[in-house]
Write a structure and sequence with these properties.
This protein is of the alpha+beta class. The strands form 4 sheets. The chain has an 8-stranded mixed beta sheet, sandwiched between helices. A 3-stranded mixed beta sheet has the order 3-2-13. Strands 9-10 form a two-stranded antiparallel ribbon. Strand 11 and strand 12 form a beta hairpin. The chain has a single domain, classed as Thiolase/Chalcone synthase (Peroxisomal Thiolase, Chain A, domain 1, 3-Layer(aba) Sandwich), CATH 3.40.47. It is globular, with a radius of gyration of 22 Å. The chain contains 15 helices and 15 strands. The relative contact order is 0.18. Bound molecules: coenzyme A (COA). The site of coenzyme A has 21 residues, from helix 2, helix 6 and helix 7.
Length: 445
């Protein structure tokens, strides 16, 4: 059976940086540790005035094509996943293809293009589409480009404002991939929910606390569904578990639930029983309330055990490094968690070829998806050529006043005069509107 999966990855971060504990928290009158310890965030990325979901996506895709020496003829699909689209008809992928055609010889006239929407899970769904297209033998030897690109802005004053971010991840999906092969087995947890939505509005309506609960509930269903086809999951099956990361504190909750699930009825649960007791089983309690109280108490004790903390430090913590520096990238977030894990392995000299990842994606509204990935031989070389650290270090540091101006500059209903804060070079930029109100882009040498 042909292996299909992620062959190459590139990232483009918004070029501005907002320091959350240092700049944002003091203006909000909040304790900086709410950010660093509670939410787990150091900084957010924001787009400069000439950046948007198209420029960030096209810049990531250009890096991907340059690095792999690709021409448009090598690409049979361009799918974009986003929750920040500005057009209900023309897909962002056509704008990105148009940008790329400015700089590459040839064109994408025979590539299928689309746009996927299901909150943050849409990037993973686009990878699925590409996987199925290749497996069905419809790709004519060509690869697919999947771009997850978002400007994750909230209304000012919304609790979500603390978790904003902006950036794009471009992934090449091919046969015989260099980074990871995707498992055929998948699990879903999907239900009609109203935790986060944008009914024809730019900024989301969010029930933040509820979205945390819905994330956990759907993720748990997806894991059970995955196990129904792939068999039970165990702690040592997976080197890393990258989750969708709206903010690292969310993953801290998901990791603990996942750990509890995976150790149930195993020797690890039995070994820990002396220290913290066995996991409460619902049948042993007279009411749901009593059972939930017991679970809460068990979880509190579980997270303090060395066994849990060692596992978390090895399998989860390394997936959060990039997220801590950039905030929420919506559709891109789970994909930067994967990159973060692979980057950690490369930096610590860990051999990963043949090892497996368990990847948990989530989109509000709501759906979680879980699948496994097997790391391929070329992973180290691919990750070694990312250049993300330089991009992060080069970001322009925003003052609070500049942050407010930039937020307004990206607000579709506000008119602003703000000048760009950085100088574009070797990248696509937004240049204004055309005669049908379409957005226009140029490549700046
Ligand atoms: N020191 C350490 N931790 C602190 C702290 C401090 N001074 N102040 C707060 N915290 C902790 C809180 O205990 C909480 O952690 P916990 O959930 O583990 O208890 C965390 O920091 C967040 O604080 P909280 O008061 O709950 O923040 P909030 O009311 O501003 O809202 C969200 C948090 C997530 C609801 C909000 O950011 C949001 O709406 N985000 C957008 C939606 C989202 O991303 N949902 C996730 C699923 S997709």
């Amino acid at each position: 059976m042909t292996a299909v999966g992620i062959d190459a990855i590139e990232i483009w971060t918004g070029k501005l940086r907002l320091d959350l504990p240092g700049t944002f928290a003091p203006f909000k009158g909040e304790d900086p540790e709410k950010y660093t310890k509670g939410l787990g965030l150091e900084a957010s990325s924001f787009p400069d005035v000439y950046e948007d979901i198209v420029t960030m996506g096209a810049n990531a895709a250009k890096r991907l094509m340059d690095r792999r020496g690709l021409t448009p003829d090598d690409v049979g699909r361009i799918d974009v996943a986003t929750e920040s689209a500005f057009d209900n008809s023309k897909p962002v992928s056509t704008y990105i293809a148009g940008c790329l055609e400015q700089v590459f010889d040839g064109d994408f006239h025979h590539a299928n293009k689309g746009e996927r929407k299901f909150a943050c899970v849409a990037g993973t769904q686009s990878i699925d589409d590409a996987y199925n297209w290749i497996k069905a033998g419809r790709n004519r030897g060509r690869s697919a480009i999947v771009v997850a690109t978002d400007t994750a802005l909230y209304e000012r004053g919304d609790p979500g404002e603390a978790t904003q971010g902006a950036g794009a991840v471009a992934m090449l999906i091919s046969e015989d991939p260099d980074v990871v092969e995707l498992s055929t087995e998948q699990g879903y947890g999907s239900a009609d929910e109203t935790d986060f939505l944008k009914p024809n509005q730019q900024f989301p309506s969010v029930d933040g606390k509820r979205s945390v609960q819905v994330y956990l509930a759907r993720m748990r269903e997806a894991l059970e569904d995955y196990e129904s086809v792939a068999g039970d999951t165990h702690l040592d099956d997976f080197a890393y578990i990258p989750f969708h990361t709206p903010f690292p504190g969310m993953v801290r909750k998901a990791g603990l639930l996942g750990f509890r699930h995976m150790i149930r009825d195993t020797e690890i649960e039995a070994d820990l029983a002396g220290e913290i007791g066995r996991q409460p089983r619902e049948g042993e309690f007279g009411s749901r309330e009593a059972y939930e109280d017991a679970i809460r108490e068990y979880m509190d004790a579980l997270k303090r055990t060395e066994t849990y903390q060692d596992w978390y430090a090895a399998a989860i913590e390394p997936t959060l490094t990039i997220s801590r520096q950039v905030g929420n990238w919506y559709t891109g977030s789970v994909h930067i968690a994967r990159v973060s894990a692979l980057k950690n392995a490369a930096e610590t000299g860990r051999g990963l070829t043949g090892e497996r990842l368990l990847v948990g994606s989530y989109g509000s509204g709501a759906q979680a998806e879980i699948h496994a990935e097997t790391v391929r031989e070329g992973w180290r070389d691919e990750i070694g050529r990312l250049g993300l650290d330089e991009q992060l270090a080069r970001r322009y540091e925003l003052s609070f006043e500049e942050y407010e101006q930039i937020h307004d500059a990206h607000n579709h209903v506000k008119e602003t005069e703000i000048e760009e804060l950085t100088q574009p070079s070797g990248e696509f930029v937004f240049t204004g509107w055309g005669r049908m109100n379409e957005r226009k882009y140029d490549y700046i040498e």
